[in-house]
Records
---
Amino acid sequence: MSQSRDLRTLRRMFPRMTSDRLVKAIERGQTIKAIAADEQKRLIAENDQLSETIAELEKRIETLTAERQQIDADEAERTAPAARAKARGNNPIAFASGNRPNLVDTHSLRGQWKALVADLVSQGMTRSKAVSQANRAYPELREHAIAEANSRRSRRHG
């Protein structure tokens, strides 16, 4: 009767103790106090081992976090110009004034007419409406531009 009480006591004291260890301790004739002391030593050793493992994992986490931060910083530095350009807008080239400069050759009459049409298009007109308005507003410029273009063409084929 006392042995069954002792077994229940050991089970309550050490719920993680396997039946094999408990039976071996009883077969060796250990007292409850000796079994309890052995189990406590084993649990302390297991706890120490787990504490060491936790410390190693925490160091590993710190190392990985530092590496990740370095990778993120490098990536941010690498993509910073693109991010700044994107923040300014979707224009492939961002200009300080906010307006694209006219890149058309304005030294020739044809270039001046093209620049006029390009300015009207940049104001929101469709290309066909911009051409019509430029022709109505500056008919002589259109005529001179056509004559210039035809003279260039005749020189090439001529």
---
Amino acid sequence: MPALHRTIAASATTAILLLGLAACGGGSKHADQPTNAAPTPGETAQKPSPKSLKWGEPAEVTGHNFKKLRVTPVGLLYSKGPYKDGDGPENGWFIALAIKAEAVQEPDSTAGGAGGGGFQWRGASQTITEMDGNSTAPWAGAANGFGVDEPLQPGSPEVGIVTLDIPAKGGRLLYVDPGDHSITSWTLPTVDQGTGLDKVRKRIKMFT
């Protein structure tokens, strides 16, 4: 091969090798960088599945300040009046629910009210909170309730009354987590039963 041709061939080979090295170097420069952005916590987190329980079964839920509580429905009573010196339910029925509750490890109160979450009623494609309808049942203020200013204590279960103004007997009692809005629910019996309702019955007798 003439010297000129050998020089041109060597130069072409060198150029190809340099281009290959440059391409490899360009790939290794970003080797430590991910090709796809990692998903954010909000994208990977999944909302917990609803828990459906039978009436009277206990459940661990989250309280007003996001501490764990153990709650158990132990009694219920339906009442629609009429009542002396007071209005009846706006939606059809008052339901008084006796709930046994205690803190699991740290003091806290049940969620609800303006803070959101807490006990609710669901049925007939409708959800009702403690703030819906008439909140002044005859036993309001006389029967023990749950309040933010009186947190539940670990190892000291208390029975409080939750009152809802509902359109019909039955349905489901919900407890909605104030943080992730997950739901724990119980099937509601359609007849009065259980314990913890003595003060409610006494007030109904006084006002009917």
---
Amino acid sequence: MSHFKINKKALMGAALLATAPTVKADGTVRSSTEGSKSKRGINHLTLEEAPLENITVCVPGKSMAGLTGDFRYLPDKLAVVHNPREANYVKMTFIVSHMNAVDYDRTLLLAYSQNLSPFPQISTPKSINKFELDLESVEIVGVYDVSSFGMKAQPETRILVNPTPRIKYEFDVNLDILETLRMMNSGNDTIYVQAALIKKSDYEAGIWNSMILSEVDTIHFVEDKCPETMIVEEGKSPVRVIEICADNDGRFGSCGDDRGK
């Protein structure tokens, strides 16, 4: 069962992804992007999450630096708190950034799995981020059409050299609270989320090696309250946690009586 509410188009996306040619686990995976410089929108995307309704996001305290009412600067590993016994729906916002303007249509996919693969199971030579989800358990949260849009690189000026416009997509997702409760009760309470952008014609043809990917974000479901500390990096000491909630206008900050409810 999916932990998100998904539609027929998403199910088709999962079926297509499941038929993608896989890479053998022989330790010899090579990519044209190995050692490449990061180029936003060209060889990678950025994925972020934010609370929306009946949910609290738990983040390491230092990640609050630079935090405003907008969605940014949250870490790749976070926990989310919701109480399925008190709320019958929960919403999160996912934000995919750094999609460059192009003159052709593309498809954006948001996928998750409860397991990571020890090696990339799909070759993505154009992306510095590799496909890390396990195809055996992958599910598609959503499949979104990204039409070509009318912004083009601008002429050079004295202080700006050919800036390339980019866009970001934000979409709200309902969590399946009965399933997340089952996960929390079973102890298998973590999912891994990754976004992918691919030319629409390649998506429809099942040609996956042209897609670029976001980093993998880790979401840990907890009940009642945030943990006091979180481990940000393996082998390092845990750091204290700060709670983030959304207010009635969708802006977020530290939790209070009027937030996260």
